[in-house]
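Bug: token stream looks shifted between consecutive jobs. Job 1:
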Amino acid sequence: MSGLSRRQFVAQVVALSAAWGLSAELLGQTLSAQGASAGVGPRTGAAIADAAAAAASGSTGSTLVQTVLQGSAGATKYRTLVAGPGEPYVPRLDVLGRAPNAARVAARRSLLYLGHLSDLHVIDAQSPGRIEPMIEQNHSAWGSAFHPQDPLTVHVTAAMVKGFSDLRVSAVTGAPMGAAIVTGDSADMHSHHELRWYIDILDGKSVLPSSGSSGTFEGVQAWPEATWAYRPNDPAGGDFGDYGFPRLPELLLQAIARPVESVGLPVPWYAVYGNHDTLLLGTFGLSSQLRALALGGQKAYSVDATASSILEGYAATASPLQRMIDAIGLQLSLRPGFRSVSPDDSRYLFEQRDFMAEHFVTEATPGPVGHGFTQHNLDSGQTWWKTELTPGIRAFGLDTCNQVAGPDGAVSDTQFQWLKGELQAAQAEKKLVLIFSHHNSLTLENRAQRPGDTEVLHGAEEFVDLMLQYPVVIGWLNGHTHLNQILAHTGAAGRGFWEITTASCIDFPQQQQTVEVVDNRDGTLSLFTTVVDHASPVTPGGSGSYLDLASQSRELAANDWAETPLMRRGSRLDRNTELLLTAPFDLTSVSDAALELQHTAERARLLAYEQKALS
């Protein structure tokens, strides 16, 4: 293997130390100790096991070492969680269609090590612009309107960010993490607070997860009238209490008492729209009535109040006069089923363009400013983008969300034709391609349109067929269904790509994943998927720290009976896997020297991140 010469290595160290404000001596020593060619050269099975253990040291994040499982039920149906054994990689040959070469283990080199986050569902649980009481009408149908763990989503997101930070070096190749992607549903109910909190946590900023009145939790989980909710101060008298949910009298105050200090993602991260970033609860258009309620001082705690005053804005029979009467009644606290809360102007419901614009209010490091979106997106309103993750890997971030109604999506013809042209270019330029979207192939059939709209909306079959026409497409990363699932899409002559769906941070198992693109040097590629648990203890403590609160959230989520929590883990074939496929072109065109330059730059970025954490 031909890598960097000593002269090239020294020049790279000097340039990178200046770019990141590092000591050239420290950077040179670190790269030498780690091996500048790590991620490029051979790595044995024993080395993989050692690296997995080292990566997970002090963290429960790596499911190669440890998993989190439900324990046995006690006197009630409620179950705590226990540590389970780690899960090794399972090779999948669905796309390759033949037995792989055993020698690949000693020959492989990393082309990109990527973090994949999705469905964070950051929630402002005190916002009046929520419709939690609808679960009283039908818990299964309205399950996403309320979860017992709603006040703890910022803590979970920060714990997940720490999980990725702990696993910033690949257990497979030793390569440094190069980028991360967030495939939508970051803000749960369109609140500006939720949008800002998610961005700030990923950027490594401090977030106080409270709105309205500081020091007092003003929400349904604190109110005795909301017997349909999990009320941790006293769960008795409702379904959650009957199920055995624990009494945790300090939980709500702990959730808002102190800022969450996030370690931040260690790499540049990118984002796409999810249906919750587009529509109310990912399903309805935003009414003027709900916008007013979100900013006001009255919050519903009964299903009748919610249905008549919050959802009434969607009914064709709701006249402007009736809406005015309702608004006056709310202001004067005359409507039953509401309680007074402290208003907060920052709870406003953001517009579609705001989602992109807020990604420009960010930190230059980890960056990039815009997180995939560019000034062209802001100027044109176009909600999809492309970027070069490495010199050899191009990514396309798509917007598959329906703009009218319904949680599922489709691909607009404008976007479809744009992507077709881009894939033609990538094929000609010999660029490997990763596709990022929120919806997956099982949820891409929503063709709802406003009267008069004529643009074609493409469904899953057409979209998959498009990608199969271009062998440079190797992976499609998405979310939406809150479960771990991996599907093989195959075409002619043994070609195809892998579709990788990750779980969410709101529902059990609260897992995300890393994906590593590996050249096996034998005409094949492997995509290694590794499921990531957030970096919290298996058993929650009572300290009120964000990691203990994240752990408590996971335990509550594991007992949310309406959400079929265990199903969302997926099978062993959907978790830690090696997904093999035929390389679309001769990868010797990517030299070892070029990869070493890439990994050296990525390692310098990680060192700067680590030094900042120490300062």
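Job 2, same session, no restart:
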Amino acid sequence: MVDSKPGYRADIEGLRALAVILVILYHFEVPGITGGFIGVDVFFVISGFVITQLLQRAFSKGTFSFKDFYARRIRRLVPLFLLVSTVTFLMISPFYIGDAYYIFAKSWLSSLIGISNLYYFSELTQYFAPETRSLNLLHTWSLAVEEQFYLIWPLTLYLAYRFGKGREGHWPFKITLVATFALSVYMANQWPAAAYYLLPARLFEFMLGTGVALFASQLPKLKRPTAELLAVTGLTMVIATALLITKHDVFPGFNALWPTLGTALVIYAGLHQPETVSARLLSLPVMVFLGGISYSLYLWHWPPVALLHYQLVELTALNRTALMIGVLIVSWLSYRFVENRFRHRPWSLKKSFWILVFTPLLIIWAIQSTIRIADDLSFRIPEERRELYKIIANNNPADLYKRCFKGDPVAFNTGKACLFGEEPVNGQPNSMLIGDSHGIAQIGFVEQLIEGKGYSLLMVTRASTPFLPTRVAETVQAADPTQVARNQALSEYLSERPMTVFVGAWWNAYLKQEAFQGYFLETLDWLKAKGHTVIVLEDVPELPSSSYAECLLKSMEDCAIDASKVENNLANFQRFKEAARQQHPDIIWTNPRKVLCNEARCETVLNGIPLYRDESHLNNVGAIEIGKEYLKRFDNPLPDLR
């Protein structure tokens, strides 16, 4: 029988090193490491194994205390997080503005109390979600998942030891392991964002590690050749997954099984044969050193990369190397002077909580509240750029005209707040602008085109709700009753009399699904059958990053983007446009890209004015400027209704 009592294993430190190396190489965008994010899953397996062994030892000696356990967790994890997050706050303050700055403050608070995975899941599934690459504390989601595991596992194992003595424990464990893996597969396919960020879909990964620890004495004792084979197989599974999968693959689910099962195999092989070739490679001094500082490396590596993304600084080989060296140095210093200083202090749970959690919580909450209520830009944005900032931050059409965007889905606003152009005759507008947030984002552009043309335009838009006639909407949008209700109400309104109808949508997003080619063509057929004059609002170029919207604030010399990439991105839309023209050659198409793009480049700034508010939506001032410039260069495509 194998002694399952925990002892120091250098190969596990090496596994930690491998995990953090994969994560860093992936986040530093080193070519070839397309799936390095699986390093996090390797950490989960290791954590399950190590924590279970520690708990087993304490239970067997009768020395376990929940208070001591959680006091050690706080002293182990929180001091370094406070250092890294505070330095990050100071580092980004001269650069981050508006929502980006406030989102950091909110994530700082949620990270400290171990719920940042819940926060990011909520934040990143919203319609106007922030860009992940510039979220400085995004990587703490995995630490939150781990902390949530620490909340449930000690009590679960304690109850099993207390009341399950003499009972066969492996069957309940096996059933639970299979069930949690099946849940992960299901969630990864049905709710990918929830699967990625939340504990339930990752629980089986921890359980693979806990299983090796719990049943170490019951698992077959391995001979050297078998241990060598299992260890090599396990390492191959981890490394191959990191090289073969990408962020576009379904994850976790089945794709998470290979690196996590591989990690469990390496740990299992090392229980019996600590001198395998794989174990000796993992136990090399450099791997043990990196594994020892892996927590510091993990915390420090991402914030500077996120700042570079926000500032639109390309990750070249030179600055990758400089970052790696800098992160390595600061991680060792943090490990030496922060991690080790606090983790061994004999503080009680109460003292640890008050000093390391509650007091910083109050300070961070005060910072967050200050930023939200009265963010003083004077010390962060030079005076000559504050007007540019206001254009970007304070001119979201969805906020300026929220009664035309966020109101009741059925009883939509038909009052003056949502009327543009001429006064309607007999209270009935002769035209409408319908669509989603990309439709309302172009209202400034449309206003310039309709001026003096006899248009009395009613705007009715809603987030993520492109117009589809009732029959189509009931099928396509069945999962969201409010979308169906909105489009039923619009269909009824549009059936009353012929009008001029401006149709806007985030065409690229919907047309990624082949079926939407047919849905949108059917929508145009329906509008024409009702006698409407149809004007399709083509979209503006999509930016590579929302940070490009603020390029003038970042002192960039050139804010243009590659026109060829813009055109490639429009391939599905152009197919839709060609099909629509064949069926309805009289449909009018307005194309703001004519103002912004030539064969080589597309501008994000026009006449010194920033045009966008994020990577795909115009700000209202920018939309107006595009409309003015369009009329200077081209004939007005709209018919005169006077």
